[in-house]
Amino acid sequence: xxxxxxxxxxxxxxxxxxxxxxxxxxxxxxxxxxxxxxxxxxxxxxxxxxxxxxxxxxxxxxxxxxxxxxxxxxxxxxxxxxxxxxxxxxxxxxxxxxxxxxxxxxxxxxxxxxxxxxxxxxxxxxxxxxxxxxxxxxxxxxxxxxxxxxxxxxxxxxxxxxxxxxxxxxxxxxxxxxxxxxxxxxxxxxxxxxxxxxxxxxxxxxxxxxxxxxxxxxxxxxxxxxxxxxxxxxxxxxxxxxxxxxxxxxxxxxxxxxxxxxxxxxxxxxxxxxxxxxxxxxxxxxxxxxxxxxxxxxxxxxxxxxxxxxxxxxxxxxxxxxxxxxxxxxxxxxxxxxxxxxxxxxxxxxxxxxxxxxxxxxxxxxxxxxxxxxxxxxxxxxxxxxxxxxxxxxxxxxxxxxxxxxxxxxxxxxxxxxxxxxxxxxxxxxxxxxxxxxxxxxxxxxxxxxxxxxxxxxxxxxxxxxxxxxxxxxxxxxxxxxxxxxxxxxxxxxxxxxxxxxxxxxxxxxxxxxxxxxxxxxxxxxxxxxxxxxxxxxxxxxxxxxxxxxxxxxxxxxxxxxxxxxxxxxxxxxxxxx
Length: 578
Ligand code: ADP
Ligand code: MG
Fold this sequence. Notes:
The chain is an alpha+beta fold. The protein contains 18 helices and 19 strands. The strands form three sheets. Strands 1-6-5-4-7-3-2-8-9 form a nine-stranded mixed beta sheet, covered by helices on one side. It has a five-stranded mixed beta sheet with strand order 10-11-14-12-13, sandwiched between helices. Adenosine-5'-diphosphate (ADP) is lined by residues 34, 38-39, 42, 80, 82-83, 85, 93-94, 146, 148-149, 198.
C-alpha cells in the first residue's frame, strides 16, 4: 500500500529538523503551544464547516483537546476531535515546510548562531534558565517562521500522527511516523483511536522528561495557550481557563481582571500602567486589548525583537509578536488583536503584505494617539510616567508623516525653566510661556541638566529669560531635525543662534545685562591684538574669531555658523564614522 516505504523529507526540512533537534534549548516548551494551536486550528476548521451546514462523522463528539501523559512509556499524547487528515494530507502537510520561510529560517539561524558564538554567551530570554547553552530562542524562531509541527522534535525522538478525517468517503485512519532524522512513513492504522480527528504521540527524549510532569505541561499551557477557544484537558483536568477578555464588553470588565489578564499575557509581575480596549467594525472588523507596561524595555538593545502584538483570527492565535500591526514607535504596546477578516490558515509570509493588517495598523495608530492625547489632557502625571518609561521609543514617531502633528504634540521635554530633572513640558506649553514675537523652539543637547546649564551658549538665553528645551538623548537632535516645524515654529539649537537672534527681547536679568555692557571703542581696539593672535593660533580650525556681547560669566564660546551642526551632533557623527 501507498507510503509503506520510507519517504525522504525535502532537503530544507532535513536541515531545519537537524537544527531543531540539536541547537534549540531555550523555551522548548513551546512545542506544546504549536501542537495545541494545530489542534485548535483543526477544531476551528471543523466548526466552520459545521456552521456552514456540513455534517461531520460523529456529530455529537465534543470539540476538545486531550493531553495524556504515560510516565512508564515516556510518551505524551495530544488528541483533538477536529478536521483530521487523509493519508495524502499527512504526507503533504507534515513532509514539507513553507518554502520561503524555511530558507529565511536557515539563513537567520546561521547568522544568529554566528553572533552568539562570537559574543560567547547565549541568552535565555524568557523564563527558561535551564542551564543549557542557549544557542537560539526556539519560541522566537519557530514563531517567526511557522515551522510549528516540527518543533516536537526538539523534545521527541519518535513521533506518530494518527488521523481520521471528519469528512469524506474514506473514514479509515492513517499513521505518519518519523524519528525526525530524515525519513517518514505513512501507513494504514488499525487503531480505533482517534474516532475523529488527530492523535499525536511523542516519545520524549531523556533530556525532555520534565514534560512527563503534569504541572509542567499545565504551566506551559497556561502560559502559551491560555486563550485557546476549545477546552484543553491534561490527564482529564482542564488547563486553559482564561476567557478571551478582548471579546467581552468593556463595561463588564474590572481593573483587576484587566491586570490579571495582562500578567497572564506578558508574565510581568506588576500591574500595567494603563490599558486600551476597543473594537472596530469598519473599515476592518477587529477587537483589540492593549496594555502599556509600567516598566521600560530596551528596544534599542536586548529587547530589539521583543515587540509586536498577538494576532488572533476568531480567537485562534495566528502569530505571536506580529510586527505588521503597529509601527515600531508603538512597540511599547502589549496585547491582542483578534479579527474576523483573516482566514485561519493564512501563512506567515502572506501576513507581511496583507491589506487587512495594514488597515488595522492605521486604525490602531489613530486609536492609540487619541488615547494618549486623552491621558495627557486628563491625567498629566500618568502621561508623564508613560513618557519617562516609553518616550524613548515613542519619539521615533516623528517618522510617521501622516500623524506627525499629533505625535509632536505628545512629545515631552525637560527644559531650563523646569524645577528639576523629572519635570516635563509639552511644546504647546513651551509656546504659551514664550514672550511675544518668539517663533523658535530653542534647544540645547547635553548629557544632563548641569552640563546644559554650563553650556556658555545658554547665557544669552538666561539673560533674556528665554526657555530652552533640554535634549538628553543622542537621538533627540535627529528628532528635532526630522520635525522641521511645529505650528509654524522652527526648531533651533542655541549653538546656532546668531549674536543678534534675541535682540528683540528685553533683558530679564539687570545685573547680567550690566556686566555684559557693550564694549567701548577703546576696549575694542585694545582687543584687536588679541583677536589677531587667536586667529593666527587657531588657523583653519575656526572660520572666524569675533568679539561678543553675549557672554556674562564665560570668557569665550564656540559658535556654530548659521545652518551648521551643533557640537553634540558633530560628536555623534564622529563616533558613527569610526
Ligand atoms: P501551520 O500550523 O503554520 O500551518 P504546522 O507545521 O504547525 O504549520 O502544521 C502543518 C500543517 O499540518 C497544518 O497546516 C495542518 O494542515 C496540518 N496539521 C498539523 N496538525 C494537525 C492536526 N492536529 N489536525 C489537522 N491537521 C493538522
Ligand atoms: Mg501550526
